[in-house]
Structures are given as C-alpha cells and as structure tokens.
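note to self — DONT lose this again. spent like an hour looking for the file last time. sequence + predicted structure for the chain T wanted, 296 res
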Amino acid sequence: MTGHQGAHAHTQGHHHTDLDWNVLGPLLEQGAELNGPVHRQAAEWLDGRTGRAVHRILDVGSGPGVVTCLLAELFPEAEVVAVDGTPELLERTRERAARLGLADRVTTRFAELPGDLGALGEADLIWSSKTVHHLGDQRGAVRELARLVRPGGVLALAEGGLPLNCLPYHTGLGRPGLLARLEVVNREMFAEMRESLPDSVETIDDWPAMLTEAGLDGATSRTFLLDLPAPLDLPARRWLLAELGHRREAAADLLADGDLVALDRLLDPGDPAGIMRRPDVFVLSAQTVHSAVRTG
C-alpha cells in the first residue's frame, strides 16, 4: 500500500502496547526479506551517490533490522546504527546481526521520534524507510535528518511508490476490483492517521523539494520494482497470507460485506480459490527512494 504499507516497521504515532509484536515482528521481517532485491538495488544506487567513504550509517525507523544488516553487508567498513522506538524490534535486529556475524558493526539505538533525532549523531549515509510519514511535521523531520548528514554524505527517504498487487482484477470471488477497493480504504485510513498525529502539519508530499529546502543538493528520486511472478513460491505465499490478513483486520469496519466474504475465502488455506492454493497469485510492487547529498 502506497505510503502506509500494511504492518510496516515504523511505529511512530502508535501506542506500542496496542500492538502484538510477537505477531507483527515476524510479518515485518518476512516482508523486508521478500523486498531484499529492492533494498539491495537502492543501497547500491546510494553507494554511487556518496562523495566520501561511508564509516557510519543510520537506519532511522529500522524495524526488525533486515535493511540494517543488508547495509552492513554492502558497506563493510561502516558502523550501522538501527534506530527505532520499539524495543522488541531492536531485539530482533540484535539477534539477526548476531546470526549473520555482524554484531561487531551493527548497534541499536532506542529513540522516540522526532524528539530524539538531534541526539543520533552525524553519519555518512542516513536511510529512513516509511518513517517520516508517521511524524506530524514531515518537513521539520527532514530538516533534522539533513543536519546529521556529513559533508559528502547522503540522506535517503523511502517514501511512496506503488501499492501491492497480487491478484488478477477479477479473482472469481465477488465483485471484481477487490484490491482496488482495499487500497481506497487504506488511503482513507492513512489520511486519518496523518491528521491524528501530534503537531500534524499538512504538507505536499514532494520529497525532493523537502530535501532541497533542508539544505541538501542534487535531490532526485528512483523507483525500484519487486516483481515475483506467478506461480508464487511457498514463503512468499505465506507472507502474503499474513499481510492480507493484517489488512483485512485493519479495514474490517470499512469494507462491504461482500468484500469481507471474498477476503475470508482468499485467507482460507484450504480453499482452492485462496492465496495458498490458487495458481495466479503473484507479488508486484514498487518502492520510490528520494535522496540528496550534503555538498557543503
């Protein structure tokens, strides 16, 4: 889902006690792993944008640490700091880094955003995915992040892209266009989330303009495609089943009864028309990354 991708890793604006991280943690981790090719391509692009050696990286809104560890692998000389406001996800990050032999270079930092941004220290590369849109003053948050970028360093914001598509327009279950209607509901919930944030400021989502206003140069955007064609393999199906289940729960009060019935059939592992058994399931989505450089 554009801008608010299901149960993604960024928890600012939520009451942490309302969320079951034993359920959401694995879902976030699986989703990030599935998007590994996208993250790798984005990181390689950013490596080409840096005008200095990368010794310190901040992953702001790091979630379960999948991208944190990928950055540590791709930048072998760098210390990578995972920054998040959820202790359970920071623990997942530490466990993952230990499994991958990266514990000596991956550290974690608990931070409540935006208040703690100024205390994170400078970095050569700052990566923040689907986090800034959870902060009431997005433009102010971008300015704070930009201040932490060392000369020659890069600030990258993964925001926007294209919503998840995984089924044909006509699924054979109820009215055609189920995913499109689910996306409309998601956008409405996203708007309500933004309006309810503390100190919420209405802002045009022109991320390159925000990066430029923050004093950075060469602001540009690139979009990276995740294309997993049908027939989908089992791990991807399991992630998709969990992801659609989470979205169904979030949108239950806003969808028509017929759409809920169709979703319930899609989520039934034993139904031949469900996600786990039908042959036409795929994953197609796109993530846009906006970046700019500190030249001064």
